[in-house]
Amino acid sequence: MTDSPEPVDDAPTGGLSKRRGRPGRPLVVMKDVNKHFGDLHVLREINLTIHEGEVVVVIGPSGSGKSTLCRTINRLETVESGTITIDGQPLPEEGKGLAKLRAEVGMVFQSFNLFAHKTILENVTLGPIKVRNTKKSQAESRAKELLERVGVAHQAAKYPAQLSGGQQQRVAIARSLAMEPKVMLFDEPTSALDPEMINEVLDVMIDLADGGMTMVVVTHEMGFARRAADRVVFMADGEIVEQAEPEEFFTNPQSNRAKDFLGKILTH
Ligand SMILES: Nc1ncnc2c1ncn2[C@@H]1O[C@H](COP(=O)(O)OP(=O)(O)OP(=O)(O)O)[C@@H](O)[C@H]1O
Ligand SMILES: [Mg+2]
C-alpha cells in the first residue's frame, strides 16, 4: 500500500526557520511514537522534530491522526511506545509537571473553549494567576497587551458569548500566549469559523509566526501554509508519508496519497 518506502524522520529544511534563517534547537522531538485506539493503529512510528522558531503545518485526510498527533504532544493522549520530549525533557506523567507542560505547550482547538462565565480579561488572566502564580495586577496588564495584539482589547470586559467566533478564537490564542508557551499547537483553528472571520485569525497566527513562535498547525488553509510554514507534514493512515517546504509540497508532491489528497482539496 505504502508508496513512501523511505523513512521520513528529519526536517528537510534542517530546522531552518524562514524568519530566523538559522537552525533553532530541537524543541519537540517525537521518536518512534506509536498509538492505538483499540484495534486502530492511529500513530505509526512517528518521527518528527520541530525546531525552535519553526512553523510546521500538518495536513492529511480526515482520520489520518493529525489531532491525535497534536494531543500526544501536550499529553492529552498517552502513547504506547516511543518517546516525546519538549525542550529536552520527557513528557511528565502527572501532577505539577503536567500542569507546567500544559503551560509550555499552548493549544488552540477548533472550538474556542473559553470559560463562558468569565470575562474575556478573566479568561486570559486565569492561567497565569493559578498556574504561574503571577500577581493579579501584573497578569491583567499583560492580558491587556495580548488582547491588544490579537485585536480585541476593547472586548476585555465582555463575556465570550458576546463575541463573534473569530474574536473568541483570537481570545483563545491570547489566553495560550499568556502562559508564555515554548510551542503553540493549533488544531484546525479556523474550521468552525464563518469565512469572513477566517482571515482575521490567520493574520494573528501569521503575526505570531513572524514573531518567532514555534508552531504546529493542523490546517487545510493553503494560503497560510504557503505564507507562514517552513514545512508541510503530510499524514495518511497514522503515518507521516512525506514532508517538504510548502511550495515544493504543493507543486510537486511525491507520494500518490499526497497527490490524491491535494487533487481533492484543490478542486473544492
Ligand atoms: N478517543 C478516541 N477513541 C477511539 N478512536 C479515536 C479517538 N480519537 C480518535 N480516534 C480515531 O483515530 C483516528 C485518528 O483520529 P484523529 O482525530 O487524530 O484524525 P484527524 O486526522 O485529526 O481527522 P480530522 O481531519 O477529521 O480531524 C480516527 O480514525 C478516529 O476515529
Ligand atoms: Mg482532527
TrEMBL record:
Subcellular localization(s) per the UniProt record: Cell membrane
SUPFAM superfamilies named in the record: P-loop containing nucleoside triphosphate hydrolases (SSF52540)
An example Gene Ontology CC term for this record: plasma membrane
GO molecular function annotations of the record: ATP binding; ATP hydrolysis activity; ATPase-coupled polar amino acid-transporter activity
PANTHER family noted in UniProt: AMINO ACID IMPORT ATP-BINDING PROTEIN, GLUTAMATE_ASPARTATE IMPORT ATP-BINDING PROTEIN GLTL
EC supergroup of this enzyme: translocase
Name of the molecule in the record: ABC-type polar-amino-acid transporter
Entry keyword set: Amino-acid transport, ATP-binding, Cell membrane, Membrane, Nucleotide-binding, Transport
EC numbers, comma separated: 7.4.2.1
The keyword Membrane is assigned to this record: yes
Catalytic activity: a polar amino acid(out) + ATP + H2O = a polar amino acid(in) + ADP + phosphate + H(+)
ABC transporter domain residues: 28-262
Similarity comment: family membership: Belongs to the ABC transporter superfamily.
Major localization class: membrane
Region feature Disordered, mapped onto this chain: 1-24
Species of origin: Kineosphaera limosa NBRC 100340
Membrane topology field: Peripheral membrane protein
